[in-house]
Design goal:
CATH superfamily of the largest domain: Histidine kinase-like ATPase, C-terminal domain
CATH topology of the largest domain: Heat Shock Protein 90
Oligomer: single chain
Strand content: 5-15%
Helix content: 55-70%
Number of strands: 7
Largest sheet: 5 strands, mixed
Shape: elongated
Length: 347
């Protein structure tokens, strides 16, 4: 129906001209008192001519329209072969389309090359920065080992100050390492489908490993981790699900000044609940948006707005879901559902 309407609109000038011709013939027949038989014969001849000319023209238009629709469907994969132009104007339009497509491909190719170079550089930087960070850890441990006994015996007060600074430096080094890991995860996420190893893992080792990793941050802030029931297994990727749990733990510790952080299973859902400052109601719908920091992030001045975005992207690719409930002053509850939904292997 739409094709026929489109054809009528395209041929409207010719149709109007044909109707005007019929009106002129009728008017001439009336003025010159032409017999009705002759007038009827003339009108019949005009009708037959219109039909003989219109049917092939309409069929050709419909066929050409289908060719263009097929070309449009192929456009996402590659520039299609367009039907031969009917006139110079259409040939000019097709040349313009071809030039625009070539420019688009050149632009996409240049952008892809620059992006790959950027990703290669930042990947190399993220790997290389780990070396001085590891060296700083070793130097700090060596200094602690050398000075501990002598300071404790000579000046207990100086020893306490040394332990205070040692814990502070260790925590800051740990944070720096986590930021580097976040950068690497962000860079790898686009090719995550090539890096998945889906197996059945027990939940408890995954959670306890993350809690141990963040133990010094728990100690530094005086927060108590409470580990509940963690029975059950989940079909997932160990590296990526550990990254998600660690990100959630990092946020829980970061925004909790006192109290506890609870981790436990409810059915097939991992629950991580803190007693922190909570999230404002108006910020909740946007917390998974890339770069969104919300009221807490603007107050803290150190939030990147990337962590929860990465968590959601990773979980969607793993076939899991995440939901967050929170209120200011009442803490935050994060629920990671391990239900077996469709796993996204696309890059």
């Amino acid at each position: 129906m739409k094709q026929m309407v489109s054809y009528i609109r395209k041929r409207l000038p010719a149709i109007v001209l044909y109707i005007a011709l019929i009106v002129i013939v009728l008017l001439m027949g009336w003025l010159y008192e032409i017999p009705s038989e002759g007038l009827g014969y003339t009108l019949l001849l005009l009708a037959v001519t219109a039909i003989l000319a219109g049917i092939p023209d309409a069929a050709r238009y419909m066929r050409r329209l289908r060719q263009l629709q097929d070309s449009k469907a192929q456009l996402q994969a590659d520039f299609p072969e367009l039907p031969p132009p009917e006139d110079l104007a259409e040939a000019c339009y097709q040349e313009m389309l071809t030039l625009l497509y070539q420019q688009k491909m050149e632009l996409e190719s240049g952008t892809a090359i620059r992006r790959k170079e950027m990703l290669d550089y930042y990947s190399m930087w993220a790997h290389q920065i780990k070396t001085p960070l590891s060296a700083m850890h070793l130097l700090l441990q060596s200094l602690k080992k050398e000075q501990m006994e002598s300071m404790e015996q000579i000046d207990p007060e100086a020893y306490e100050r040394f332990l205070f600074f040692d814990r502070g430096l260790s925590v800051e080094l740990f944070k720096t390492e986590q930021y580097v890991e976040m950068v690497l995860s962000y860079l790898r996420m686009e090719e995550m489908g090539n890096d998945l190893l889906l197996k059945s893992y027990a939940v408890e080792p995954l959670v306890r490993q993350a809690v141990r990793k963040y133990s010094q941050m728990f100690i530094a802030k005086g927060i108590c981790p409470v580990v509940g029931e963690l029975s059950g297994e989940v079909l997932t990727d160990e590296k990526w699900i550990s990254f998600v749990i660690e990100q959630i733990l990092s946020n829980a510790v970061k925004y909790t000044e006192q109290g506890t952080v609870f981790l436990g299973m409810e059915g097939t859902t991992l629950v991580i609940r803190d007693t922190g400052i909570g999230i404002r109601k108006e910020d909740l719908p946007r917390i998974f948006e890339k770069g969104f920091t919300g009221y807490n992030g603007r107050t803290d001045k150190k939030s990147t707005g990337i962590g929860l975005y990465l968590c959601r992207q990773v979980l969607e690719k793993l076939g899991h879901t995440i939901r967050i409930e929170s209120a200011p002053g009442k803490g935050t509850e994060v629920r990671i559902a391990f239900g077996r939904t469709k796993v996204d292997f696309r890059d």
